[in-house]
Design brief:
- By secondary structure, the chain is an alpha/beta fold.
- The protein is built from 22 helices and 19 strands.
- The strands form five sheets. Strands 7-6-10-1-11-12-4-13 form an eight-stranded mixed sheet, sandwiched between helices. A five-stranded antiparallel sheet has the order 15-16-17-18-19. The chain has a two-stranded antiparallel ribbon with strand order 2-3.
- It starts with a helix and ends in a 38-residue tail after the last helix.
- It binds (2R)-2,3-dihydroxypropyl phosphate (GP9) and manganese (II) ion (MN).
- The site of manganese (II) ion has 6 residues, from α11.
Length: 719
């Protein structure tokens, strides 16, 4: 003990003591207050070390102080400051199941109300431990048990500790990237940043992002809006009379087919049809199915696809718009447009946590009335995979909420089971997978088949319940499942269905090119309108950016006054130059990849001359302009300067996604006989029993363990 006292009576001893105690209280917060969803030894190891690097770095600043009367107060101030940040996050997390952003701290957040008086009511007995060490040390100092060590430390020591902490942080980042690739570039959930890098790193990261965003926004001017307006109106494609309003007043059900690529449609492997039901929908006379439709996502992946379909604007050049800008972004999105133009109710059904991709905040800014995320379902035990509730259960368990939605409604289902690395429990599928030597490629076919089965079960319910007849069902793939680096392994399956893959040539595996990679970026886009007889395969080239103007025109809403960067796919003026987020592009005739041009008829590289050269340059200029204008609008949040005629800006404060069921029931009760919910139309009887599934988990009772960490940022107001 004596030895310990003498040690902490040296500056280095005191330094290590404070670092150790701060590390301990951070772990206390990790274990007692945050739900970081840690699984596996490696994640535990990363979580245990992640407070160290920045604590050494911050506390190490005091080591540069020569005088004791500077060193001690400084290191204590740093300790107190860091403890305040940690403790504020603990309280904030108890209220919002989320971490405090700089904007929230500064009270700039449009959505997060920030800490309120009632937050203090959220204190807990163990909170004392966050402050006890500081109090004890101050008392011991006052009692001169801990004395100031007047001996200055060697100058280089401060520098050594700083370099050590930078090195340590480098390792921490490397371990994090190993376990969760693209953690920083694809910040899909703040919880992951804290789990892998700690609260301090999260706050610094968020600060840098906020600074970057506010710089861009503060310099934004109305004139920049003018040039975007000019571009959008010049690019607008007039609707096609033949299709305008044909789905007016129908419910809109959007089914997001996770990581589902077009090549799966009609594909056979190991003698099995991979997606028999979706093939049937694809070829149905009631479906407008697009065979040359491409995803246009960037690093935001699903969230980029959602952004394009909901707003008609692209994702960001880097990172995710939802995660980076979503909390304070002005949106003029489908839920609000359909509600204001035609009184639609709106809801999202998704089996993952509400905070993933910052959806909880983004949907409020979009005007979504309901968000039934993971906390609304039993996701325990084998009912979920890493990304949330299995698709068959999502569709089935959603009925208890769907049946109370007032019609017409705009409802989106975001499936997750067909997600990299395409794991599925044995009990869920007996599909025979090919052997390409690449397990994620092999399993992709199994999860795609599982998704196909789950959509089939849902359609069966739609028909039985009668919802089918007064709905338009949109099905789309959000982005590739198989990445370019695995495409050669995928190509090994092409010979099993060579006619289906004839455009890839006789020996695709050995002659694989970037052109082949680009052709595989097609995703399904199907507009299924029961009762329509003139459906069929649509060959016009297009992408996710074109969906919203296409849908609005089908519903009889003119999209001209809205800032959207795509064009109606049915319009004779539709723009068939499809931009990819990285400025590559494809047209019916050519594919341009980093300036190399391929002829789509042959798949071969061409050297453009004369008029072709001009055309290629013109198309590239067009692509860069389209992306540039969208980025200007989003990065500078220019929609805050623009209100479409008759459109009322969304007030996100009006939305809270807790208690969704009670809210539906309250609306239904208030409307009484005027209620248009399925339940009311079914003479106030539930339709849940109509739903049939062969999901083995459906009969499994709730279990303690859970593959996803359930949080609902709005839950403290009850769910
Ligand atoms: C997460 C899910 C998948 O909730 O939507 O997102 P992704 O990883 O595909 O972007
Ligand atoms: Mn996705």
């Amino acid at each position: 003990m004596k030895q310990f006292i003498s040690k902490i009576n040296t500056r280095m001893g005191f330094f290590f003591l404070l670092v150790f105690l701060f590390w301990l209280k951070t772990l206390l917060a990790y274990f007692a207050d945050f739900s970081l969803g840690v699984s596996g030894i490696f994640q535990w190891f990363i979580m245990l070390i992640n407070p160290l690097a920045i604590t050494f770095l911050l506390f190490g600043i005091a080591l540069y102080a020569k005088k004791a009367k500077i060193f001690y107060p400084l290191i204590l101030l740093i300790d107190i400051g860091n403890t305040v940040l940690l403790y504020l996050n603990v309280i904030y997390y108890r209220e919002f199941s989320d971490f405090m952003t700089i904007n929230t701290m500064l009270g700039y957040s449009k959505v997060d109300q920030g800490l309120s008086g009632s937050s203090l009511a959220l204190t807990e007995p163990h909170d004392l431990l966050f402050w006890l060490d500081i109090v004890i040390i101050l008392v011991l100092m006052l009692m001169r048990k801990i004395k100031f060590d007047q001996n200055p430390l060697p100058k280089r020591l401060g520098f050594q500790v700083t370099s050590l902490s930078v090195l340590l942080f480098g390792f921490n980042l490397m371990f994090a990237e190993i376990d969760r690739p693209q953690l920083i570039t694809r910040t899909f959930d703040r919880t992951y940043i804290v789990k892998y890098l700690g609260i301090d790193a999260f706050t610094v990261y968020d600060g840098a992002k906020t600074e970057q965003t506010s710089k861009m926004r503060s310099s934004a001017t109305k004139s920049e809006l003018k040039s975007v307006e000019k571009y959008v109106h010049g690019h607008y494609a007039k609707s096609n009379k033949k299709y305008y309003g044909i789905a007016k007043g129908k419910n809109v059900i959007v089914i997001h087919l996770e990581s589902f690529q077009q090549f799966l449609i009609d594909d056979k492997v190991e003698g099995q049809t991979v997606t028999p039901f979706l093939n049937k929908i694809y070829h149905s006379k009631s479906t407008y199915a697009f065979s040359n439709f491409f995803h246009q996502v960037g690093q935001g992946k699903t969230s980029d696809a959602e952004n394009m379909l909901e707003t008609g604007t692209f994702g960001l050049p880097e990172g995710s718009l939802f995660a980076q800008l979503g909390t304070n972004q002005t949106f003029q999105a489908a839920p609000a447009i359909l509600n204001q133009e035609q009184g639609y109710t709106s809801a999202v059904f998704h089996g993952n946590v509400a905070s993933f991709w910052n959806r909880n905040n983004v949907y409020k800014n979009m005007g979504y009335q309901y968000f039934f995320s993971a906390s609304y379902y039993d996701t325990s035990g084998d009912k979920s995979t890493g990304y949330g509730l299995k698709d068959k259960l999502l569709f089935k368990d959603s009925i208890k909420y769907l049946q109370y939605l007032q019609q017409p409604f705009y409802a989106k289902y975001i499936t997750v089971s067909n997600h990299f690395p395409f794991d599925l429990d044995k009990e869920d599928s007996s599909f025979k997978v090919p052997n390409t030597g690449n397990s994620s490629v092999n399993n992709y076919f199994k999860t795609a088949n599982y998704l196909d089965q789950s959509v089939k079960e849902f359609f069966t319910f739609l028909k039985k319940s009668g919802l089918y007849d007064n709905s338009v069902i949109i099905l789309y793939g959000d982005h590739y499942g198989i990445s370019n680096s695995d495409n050669k392994d995928l190509a090994k399956t092409f010979s099993q269905d060579s006619s289906h893959f004839k455009s890839y040539g006789s020996d695709p595996v050995d002659n694989w090119t970037d052109w082949d990679n680009t052709q595989l970026q097609r995703v399904p886009f199907m507009i299924h309108i029961p009762g329509v007889k003139n459906g069929g395969i649509q060959k016009q080239y297009g992408g996710e950016i074109d969906v919203l103007p296409t849908l609005l025109h089908l519903l009889g809403i003119n999209s001209k006054k809205y800032m959207q960067f795509g064009t109606d796919l049915f319009s004779s003026q539709h723009d068939q130059v499809v931009a990819f987020r990285n400025q590559n592009y494809i047209t019916p005739n050519y594919t341009s990849i980093s300036g190399t041009v391929y002829d789509n008829n042959t798949g071969q590289v061409v050297t453009p001359t004369g008029s072709l050269k001009k055309q290629i340059a013109k198309d590239q200029k067009k692509v860069n302009k389209q992306l540039g204008m969208s980025d200007s609008l989003n990065e500078k949040n220019l929609l805050r300067f623009y209100t479409p005629k008759g459109f009322k800006a969304v007030n996100s404060q009006l939305y809270n996604y807790a208690n969704g069921l009670n809210k539906e029931l309250a609306v239904q009760k208030k409307l009484g006989l005027k209620s248009t919910s399925m339940y009311s139309n079914n003479r106030d009887r539930s339709l849940e029993d109509l739903y049939k599934t062969d999901a083995p988990e459906a009969s499994h009772s709730k279990s303690k363990n859970n593959r996803i960490q359930i949080t609902n940022p709005d839950s403290n107001s009850g769910n």
